[in-house]
Design brief:
alpha+beta; seven-stranded antiparallel sheet; 3 helices; globular
C-alpha cells in the first residue's frame, strides 16, 4: 500500500527578469546570498544536483537529479535527504516555473510527491515561504533575509 502524498504550491511576484530569477536558483554565488546554501549542478537533465550549506562545514543537506531544465522558464528537480535518497518513496519533486509579467516575474514553486506528514513535508512547509521571501528581497533590494531566523519569544506568552 502506498503512503498518502501531499504537495505544496507557492506563487510569488518579483520585480526582476526571468533570467535573474533562474540564475538565483541555479548559480551558487547567488543562492548563498538568500538561501544560506549553494545549489550545485551543471543543470542538464539527468545530472545530479546538491544543496550545500554555505559555511565552513559545507554540509550537503539535499540531493537529487535534474529532471527538466528550460532556462529561464522552467526547472524541475528531484529532492531528497542524502540519507534517504536511495529509497524512491523518500524522493520528492520541485518545479520552478518562471513567467514574464510586464516589469516583473511570476515564480511558481510546486513541491510534490511528498509523503504526507513526513519530516520533509513539515520542513519544506516552513522553509519555502522564507526562502522565497528572501529570494524576492535579494532581487528587489540587493539583500536577502535571514532564512535561519526563529520567531521572537514573547515575554508573557500573549500576542498584542
Amino acid at each position: 500500500m502506498s503512503k498518502e502524498q501531499t504537495s505544496f504550491v507557492y506563487v510569488t511576484y518579483i520585480r526582476s527578469t526571468p533570467e535573474k530569477v533562474f540564475e538565483a536558483i541555479t548559480k551558487p554565488e547567488v543562492a548563498q546570498r538568500y538561501w544560506g546554501h549553494e545549489n550545485l549542478s551543471d543543470w542538464k537533465p539527468g545530472s545530479d544536483w546538491e544543496h550545500v550549506r554555505a559555511d565552513e562545514q559545507r554540509t550537503v543537506n539535499i540531493v537529487g537529479k535534474v529532471v527538466e531544465s528550460v532556462p529561464p522558464a522552467r526547472l524541475v528537480i528531484t529532492w531528497a535527504s542524502p540519507s534517504q535518497a536511495s529509497d524512491p518513496a523518500n524522493i520528492s519533486r520541485v518545479s520552478f516555473d518562471i513567467e514574464d509579467y510586464d516589469d516583473m516575474v511570476r515564480l511558481t514553486v510546486i513541491h510534490d510527491e511528498l509523503e504526507a506528514g513526513s519530516g520533509m513535508a513539515m520542513g519544506i512547509q516552513k522553509g519555502w515561504p522564507i526562502v522565497l521571501s528572501s529570494l524576492k528581497s535579494l532581487l528587489e533590494t540587493g539583500q536577502g533575509i535571514d532564512v535561519f531566523a526563529k520567531p521572537k519569544a514573547t515575554s508573557n506568552g500573549s500576542h498584542s
